[in-house]
Design goal:
The chain is mainly beta and about 80 residues long. It has one helix and two strands, in the order βαβ. It is about 10% helix and about 35% strand.
Length: about 80
Amino acid sequence: MIQVEGLSKVFRRPRTFSGPFGALRTLVTRQYEERTAVDDVSFEIGEGEIIGHLGPNGAGSAPPPAPRCSTARTP
């Protein structure tokens, strides 16, 4: 069984500025924005269960928020 509890992921990226000197200001100042991608996700995958992940358009091409794993075999 695979069990995930309280999975969270926050991305930190530099704040961008607009205007004629925006690119320079972005490089010189170290201001960051944080974006939460996943917040407190929990799930279980039982033995023998088959799962899939669908992206926003239903195509299945989006990477899952949880780490990818292969088939888990128990002894």
